[in-house]
Amino acid sequence: MVAVSSPGNSSPPLSGLHLLLTYQCTFECDHCFVWSGPFQTGTMTLDTVDHILAEAERLGTIEWIYFEGGEAFLYYAILRSGVLRAKAQGFKAGIVTNAYWANSEDDALEWLQPMAGSIDDLSISSDSYHGGIDGDSNPEIARAAARQLDIPVDFISVAEPETTGTLPPGESPVLFRGRAAELLASKVPPTPWQQFTTCPWEDLRNPQRVHVDPFGHLHICQGISIGNLLERPLAEILADFRPDEHPIVGPLLDGGPAEIVRRYELAHEDGYADHCHLCYLSRRSLRSRFPDVLAPDQMYGRA
Ligand code: SF4
User: Fold this and answer.
1) Is 185 inside any structural domain?
2) Mutate to test the pocket of ligand 1, among 198, 203, 279 (most ligand atoms within 8 A of CB)
3) 72: alpha, beta or left? (left if phi > 0; alpha if psi -120 to 50)
């Protein structure tokens, strides 16, 4: 068993691999971390899925394989094979989707039936960004079909950026990275940059889940690579990961996004929408200095 942490560290090992099956999506949501959209590029082949599953099996600590994007159902044949193969290899399989395919309950059953019994979690995006709530009813249709097939199902909802105070039950806040940093950050009052002294959302020292994209980048947070799974074995990448020595994770652990600004003497505004806003814009300005780490272009708004 290989753990990300150093010897003697009792933190749980990496247990989840989230495959970004494609950067393409039917929607182009303002809050998207990964700049997905209809014209985005980058999709996994079945060979790549197989390679990742083999690496996950070899590591010995992975329990969950998630298929997400972008919109994973756009590449349905690869998604279906990936889910069935992951299950056959003993993993739990999850899918994240916007349910664009659920135009009627009969249709939704047709899409889900071939994977029924193999999906352990179906997470459906349902919020105003995805045309849900007051928009179309595809998420509700997909949920009803999943329940008919005994597929565990839930909704993912992101609150409007202007929402203040306690969020409505089941909603999570907008994090201002990726497209959200460009399009939504101006909707909230700025906080002085010096106050962003931690990463509040990711366990950067001992991640329990990481994302892997079609190009092999292993993302500890979207757009921060700790190695390439198509170039090196997963176990080797994790064993060699030294969080404090990583050019971006190191400063984040030392003093949050504010420390990235200080460490690299970056030009900055007085205030930012949240931790991720300062982190994302700082990283974007460092891409030419750390091209292998701050990758790929898709995570920074370029197809
Ligand atoms: S602060 Fe940076 S590393 Fe942490 S979650 Fe936000 S964007 Fe990711």
Assistant:
1) yes
2) 279
3) alpha
Ligand 1 neighbours by CB, cut-off 6 Å: 177, 199, 201-202, 221, 252, 257, 275-276, 279-280
Ligand 1 centroid vs 280 CA: distance in angstroms?
Answer: 7
223 Cβ contact list (under 8 Å, min separation 6): 177, 178, 280, 283, 294, 295, 299, 300
> Is residue 123 assigned to a domain?
no
Work out the percent of the chain whose per-residue pLDDT is above 70. 90
Spell out the residues 6+ positions from residue 302 whose beta carbon is closer than 8 angstroms to its own.
35
Which pLDDT tens digit goes with each residue over 270-279?
999 999 999 9
Within-domain flag for 105: no
The model scores a pTM over 0.85: yes
Query: Residue 274: which of 209, 208, 193 has the closest Cα?
Result: 193
Region of 216 please: left (phi>0), alpha (psi -120 to 50) or beta.
left
Q: Is 165 a residue whose pLDDT tops 70?
A: no
The yes-or-no verdict on residue 196 having pLDDT over 80 is yes
Give the span between the Cα atoms of 164 and 191, in whole angstroms.
14
Residues in contact with 71: Cβ distance below 8 Å, sequence separation at least 6, in sequence order: 22, 24, 25, 26, 27, 36, 97, 98, 100
Question: Domain range holding 219?
Answer: 16-97+175-300
Question: Does 154 reside within a domain?
Answer: no
